[in-house]
Structures are given as C-alpha cells and as structure tokens.
Amino acid sequence: MRSGGGDPFAANGAPPATAATPTTAWNPPAQDLAHQPVTQVLQKVTEESKALIGEELQLARTELTSKVKTAGKGAGLLGAAAIAAIFGAMALTAAIILALALVMAPWAAALVVAAAYLAIAATLALTGRNQVQAATPFVPERAVRTLSDVIQRIQSAWKRGESRP
C-alpha cells in the first residue's frame, strides 16, 4: 500500500464518505490529455512518474528502517538469551560437580567435569575444522572450470576462424 494512499474502500466494501479527498496515490488526470500538446503530456507524465518513484522509494526506505529496527531488537534478545544460557550452563556444571562430590573428592569431581567438557570441545573443534577445510578454497570450482572450458573453446574457434565455438 502506498504511503498516504490506501484502500479506496472501507472495511465493509463501501466507498469512503470523503471520496473527493486527494491521495498521494495515482489519480486519473482531471482534464482530457488527448487534446493537449505532446510536450505538455510528456511533462505531466515525467512529473507524475518522478513523484510516484519518490513515493515508492520513501515507502521502501520506511519499510526497511522498520525491519532493521525489528531485526536489531531481535538480535539483542538473542544475545541476552545466549548470556542467560551461559549462566544456566555454569549452574548446571556446579550441580554436576556437587553431585559427583558425593562419591569422590570435590577436586576430582571438578577434574572429571572439566575433562568431559574439554573432550566435547575437542570433538567439536576437529569436526568444525574438517568442514571448513572441505569448503575451502572459497572459489566456485565448477563455475571456474566451466568458464575455463568456454574460454578454451572460444580461443580454439578463434584460431580456426569459426564464428561459433
């Protein structure tokens, strides 16, 4: 919906009571342009096109600003959730250590939990490294191969004097 324009009908489908109020949406010309000089018609079309493009750009700017603000708020909430999750994980770690301390020395319980976390971290790091190595180099290899093939075909056709590769 264009800014300032709007639906020409009310929610019940009836035309609004003040249908004569101008809107910023396109309105048909009040005068018949068929009998106007071409230069005036083109000038009017140019002016109305500029106005419409300006309105559409303003609408797009407004929409994008709103979306960016909403996304920024969402990112902030995600950050806060991550911090809360870290605190929860620390409390869970303390609970695990205290539970293990019932059956072993507290220092040994902390050492077991730390070793488990380090094993998980090492596994994740190795898996991540392997995936990054599989994805590098960041070059579209198939596209480069295809493009190289096309270039070679064009060069060989050029040498042979053909018009098609």
Quick description:
The protein has 165 residues and is mainly α. The protein is built from three helices and no strands. The two termini are 50 Å apart.
Commentary on this structure:
This protein is mainly α and 165 residues long. It has a domain at 106-165. The protein is 68% helix and 0% strand. The protein has 3 helices and no strands. Helix 1 (38-100) packs antiparallel against helix 2. The longest helix is centred in the middle third of the chain and has 63 residues, at 38-100. Mean pLDDT is 82; it is low at 1-23.
* Main beta-sheet strand count, sense and barrel state: none
Beta strand %? under 5%
Number of strands: 0
Q: What is the H/E string?
A: HHH
- Number of alpha- plus pi-helical segments: 3
Q: Span from first to last CA? A: 50 Å
The global form is flat
Give descriptors for this structure.
mainly alpha; 165 residues; 0% strand
